[in-house]
Records
---
Amino acid sequence: MAYPTFAKPETLNRRSFLLGTAATAAATMTLPGAAFAQAKGQLLLWLPGGSDLFCKVQTGMLTDWTAKHKELASAETVCGLGQDTAFNQALIGAITGGNPPDMSLLWDAPVSLGTQGAFLALDDMMAKSIINIDTWPGGLLASCQFKGKTYGLPVTAGIYSMWYNAEMFEAKGIKSDRASFPKTWVEMRALSKEFTVWDGDTLKVAGFMPHREAESLAIWSALNGGKLYDSANYKYTFDSEENIEMFNFFVDWMNEEYKGDINLVDRSGSFASGYANGTTGQPAAFRESRLAGLHSGSWLMGDIYDPAPNFTRWDLAPHPVGPSGSATVSGVWPNWFVIPANSLNPQAAFDYLTYLSTEGAVTWFENVPDIPTNSLVKLAPPKILVDHRGEEFAKETTAFYSEQAKIVTPMWDSPVQGFGNDQLKLAIEKIYTKAATPKDALAEAQVASQAELDRVLAG
Amino acid sequence: MVAELPSSAGDPRGPRRKRAGRSEARAGVLFALPWMTALVVFTFIPLVLTFVIAQAKFQIAGPPKWIGWGNYEAMWKDSAIWASVRVTATYALVSVPIKLVLALGLAMFLNRATALSGFYRTIFYLPFLMPAVAGSIVFMLLLTPGAGPVNLILGAFGLDPPDWLKDPHVALWTLIMLSLWPLGVETLVFLGGLQNIPKEISEAADLDSPRAWHKLVWITLPMITPVILFNMVIGIISSFQVFTQALVIGGTTGAPAESTLMYMVVLYRAAFRYFNVGYAAAMATVLFVTVLLLTLLIFRTAKSWVYYEGEGR
């Protein structure tokens, strides 16, 4: 007779549990590395963000270019890793981890991280390429250079200018042609008053707003004959007489026209830029014809139609000049590209950037109107503008921005750009909320920024 | 009478027991090993490295350079450090006592046995489960000037509400208000303390004096002093480390005008915005030492005001 036998049930003993745990942990720790690993022959591009259209255009250009280069197996574009701190963090993390992208767009000064060894110096590759040093506007390339080394390429730039609602001007019987636009801050301030309407503590309509954005403040400083940073001598000049005068002018203007209360203005709507307020959702006053004019960049030519404004005819003008200034200037928002240290495909990355700086920049501009900066580029007007305003206006606007690109003031050129901008932001807040006088706030920002610069330069 | 412990001497099963004991100990160590490894790798080594890196100029991308006390000297001269110390100290001094009082009040309310006690406990604990970022954003929306519900309600009563998050004189108080919202943990700890008060003492106190505040001052508070000590120490430590809410509301500059600039935000931006890791490590070291000293000081004073049952006084 055979007795039935029972197999011992499979139980989880301590040994198998610990082994299993260790194996799972090891697999988990290696997986992300494998998933995001950079590979030879695969071009990897990182972008901090941008609109869906921007990401789509960038992805498409890289894919098309890679398809024509058989030595490259594939390409990948990672879009939207986050602006400023988050993006730089991710990039530095990837570089120090030995697994960086082959190239990256940077909305910051390349010298900040370049001087720390985070990016490759591109001078040798540039010398052998069609995009050699002579093909770049000196002022723009300077913002990528430090102590004779070039850490990035100023592929395209958003160019700043004045924007105005021609229909609002005409409704007030004010000439709306570019030539009649105010040439000085005093004229602009006088014109602004014509538009500004308060209803109690609510600002219904405004003319122009005194400037308060740190990133583009260098333009306004230059318009008043000053500068924020002297790159030749590695000196910050936040608290120069011209800059103090500039903020005194803005504060006077704020007091006279905007009840001296920046928070009242902000409560009333999004008057600070051409975009809706990201936190409160207040729509852009400019698009609603509640703001007659503003200081903004060339990218708005595309973005202004999403959502579309309630008027058709906007126009552009050069920046007016401050009381101590002598000539108008423009400035840039950088779309600078870098090749991180430890890139596995540096030459292929540089070749792509060569394409992007020339042919690619045209495609870029046609879809997203950031201005190509390399002199080899022949510009066609942006499609979106042609569709909305016609060929002639689009051509004329493109020509205007090309001219503005020639008078760009040096900016984005400090090795501690982010730190300096933060200090300026703080100073601007203190000035406009009356927590400090312009003189004191700028002096404080000056001391902090110079100390940080000296620390970094000390090596 | 003292019970004799069983001896294994002469027991033929002794060596086997010893082997079994060693095997159990090995298993115990093996089970604890992942945790111990994590403690060493993720706590002890970073702690020691922090002390070392604090002596160096280290920008992440390049090699560290030894500068001795340089980072500490730079801290001394950094106006942002002093601004953040001022803001953090104010935050701690104001928020911790208010938090303790409110949590105790809530716990006393919950301690009253009612049919809805369980429901209230859950409700009061819920905010603690919400991520700090989400909570901060909800508060920002509630306090939005103009269209925010809080200002609309205050406006309806004829009040002129402030710019909660944009006025430099008000923003820190808003942040403190936000810190008072998730009181769940403190309340539960207090509740545990209240429920541990022996019933006979509580009943005797009721007989001695009909006044509730007499019982509160002379019985309840002394009996829960260990819990007050615990909540106070944890509260002070966490108030020095407040970060998420401050970053969401004030960004890395402590907007408006540094009024919400917490020490941890300055530390974070030094490390991850300016990549000045050595400086951030020095800041972390100073914070560590400060909180340690403060905690030791509180424990030292605790001998005079904390009552432990069964301990001679």
---
Amino acid sequence: MSKKTLIVIGNGMVGHHFLEQFVATPSASDYEIIVFGEEKQLAYDRVHLSEYFAGSTHADLAMGTADWYTEQGIQLRLNEAVTSLDRDQRTVTTPKGQYRYDELVLATGSYPFVPPIEGREHPHCFVYRTLEDLDAIRASAQSGKSGVVVGGGLLGLEAANALKSLGLQAHVVEFAPRLMPVQLDTDGGALLRHKIEELGVQVHTEKATTAIVEGVDARLRMNFSDDSHLETDLIVFSAGIRPQDALARSSGLEIGERGGIVVNDQCTTSDPHIHAIGECALWDQRIFGLVAPGYTMARTLASVLNGDAEAAFTGADMSTKLKLLGVDVGSIGDAHAQTPGARNIRFNDEQAGHYRRMVISEDGKTLLGAILVGDNSHYDTLLQYTLNDITLPDNPETLILPESQGGAPALGPDALPETASICSCHNVSKGDICGAIDAGCGDLGSVKAETKASTGCGGCTALLKNVVDSELEKRGVEVSKDLCEHFPYSRQELFHLVKVNGIRTFRTLISQHGKGHGCDICKPTVASILATCWNDHILATDHVPLQDTNDTFMANMQKNGTYSIVPRIPGGEITPDKLIVLGEVAKQYNLYTKITGGQRVDLFGATLSELPEIWEKLIAAGFETGHAYGKSLRTVKSCVGSTWCRYGVQDSVGMAILLENRYKGLRAPHKVKMAVSGCTRECAEAQSKDFGVIATENGWNLYVCGNGGMRPRHADLFATDLSDEELIRTIDRVIMFYVRTGDRLQRTSVWMENLEGGLDYLKQVVLEDSLGICAELDEHMDGIVDTYQCEWKTAVEDPEKRKRFREFVNAPEQKDPVQQWTTERDQRRPVLESA
Amino acid sequence: MKARTCWDAVCTVEDLVPESGIAVWTDDGPVAVFYLPHRLPALFAISHTDPFSGTNVLARGITGDLKGEPVVASPLYKQHFSLVTGQCLEDENVSVKTYPVLLDGDKIRLEVPIDQSESAVA
């Protein structure tokens, strides 16, 4: 049976989401799928477009990969715009050919509206929609000092932030009397304006631009209807969007009066074989300019095409929660009190810069809408009241009052109905979460993996954790944080006990705070904590029996009981002389030699008794231990940087060496990897590391909590344009905070995902010192840096410590009989057979 | 019929590491000797050979107790072995050989079979 053809026009966020949903349905196998994209790039995250200026690349923002399309058997035709649509023949035409369809999906999105102002075609006038637009804005900004955004809405303020991050004096020009007129009221808009102006962005409201002409002091001059003017070097129009409906219009599909492709509840147009989703679709006389409703349409259409007769789009909640230029803004439901009889409760604290407004129903029982500026901490609770029609308490004002004035705590997870939507990005309800728990998910991580909740924008992380904890508790699951049977404490709690009570040995800790004699879980954990707190040598008598074999023998045990040796090569920089020593030592001891992923050399096959001899030779040549065996800093990978590379803007090798020498030896809950790239091309792959540093023209951008390996995680941008000193202090604090609060064997990526409050919280702790612990963290780190010792140097110089490396204490000449060798590709390797 | 054995002096108290193990070579092959000073008796001896990997590494594992039973964890794949019975706690079909051990002055003596050196290679 030959397959039918499904064509999707548009490869944006909604189009991509539709494909993800549709290929997961059984019907997908009935279709050949072809996707046309007008832009050169694969679908990317337009919501986070301004991050492109903060160092993100298209790959960071991309929704999927070309490989994904290939794996799904989807024909992806980028940079190929569809020019005409023939509904009778059921074909679409592009400059490259004609394609027949059985079902057609229009996901053409929208285009920025540019008001018909004289002079708007000037080469330094832009819109803010695609990566190409951003590249053009960046190029223009390089030769300019100031920039104006026309439009003070959500996108306009995003664009203003982008101009600010490009180093321009940013202005916002708005026609309405206030910022964000759709979402905010007068008081909210005024507060937002005040906060934004404090950040250095100038706001001009009630300004209608009449013409754009050549400037006197700058490139351009904007003339306003009130005869005033403003000079600027570039202009970005962000005055709203218009549905991209040209193709539909020319083929005679039904179009709304003010544009938009008319669709029914099934997202189908006036032609039963043509469907439209996202910002190009007009449903119930409404265009939805947010991504979440677009996703809902995409899901609906995927179900419809899979034959689900019940599937229907029934409108979408347009509530929004944002951080604009660092200012919290929230708008829920009927924010402007348009429902007949609606009443308002307002709380306005000009001192603290907080504004909150509740719109409640005439009978005072339900919350119709809300506006928040300056502090979004009440948003989740208020949204749940609105979305789920939860009856308001007798004194509803307590919901927005500060707690000190009798404000109510956040809505408990128990109060939420089963239908309550917890994660709107992936449409996960409280009922879905309960279902996942009933099906065997026993912790937050597995619930996230099963339901995808909180893996989109991440805004619901705290709420999700509350729901999961509460549901687990209800089912009698004790959420145990005990490390093992010997200690009724988490690693973080043990860390505090050790630190606060000045405990220096395992024996003291277990006799005072645990029971029994310990095990292979708690002993290495405590060893790591003791090492972080006091930095004694790991082979000090009391600590020897606590270590994993790799730490005890300061080498990595391999499958045949021999060890591998990895000397430190900071930043991957090594002299020819040192390289020769590595070769000579490897040759003498017949060690298998391999270059590691962390830019160093791994020497395999040393027996226990050979280790001190080998290290004597390496130390004599100037090598230090590489801690490849430890839960500690491994390497700081680097590209060659500005010293050699024609694109490099900073000395990445120098910085990598500095960082590696600073943090070497520090014991952590798990291994820590870093990298430094000399420019935004990112050759050192820093964004897949626990700490990634990328050079900018002005300094360094720091990314944290990335991971490669089994479960890759893209690092989060933590701070931008740092000086050398700022970079080091910031890393100091994040590492120290991780070391103190991380769980046993928890990499920074998982630590971040489980950190309540996530990235924002970590920024507050480290950059704003919200817990008041930064001085202590700094002092702790300085102490560790000052007491660093090369563990191998200390060990080979101490005859007592060397005794530990005897293979058989009573037979120095006895070789281990089970170690059998063979040769492969000119090197020695173990004979692989199991006993 | 009981095999002939002898009490071999394998090392001295100086060689032991508290709360940990060392390996010695005997006529019966490699043996791991553990010294847990906070227990009575404090000495334990089991085969040094990890039955799961066939390598001689058990003396290099972490010691401890699970539900009161003194154990060592294999440094390779982390299974636990009772230091008293040699039983693997994760797999009831697997165990390692145990040896009687005693302190004689400052010498550690193991009771090992005589003339069975060919069994040394596991």
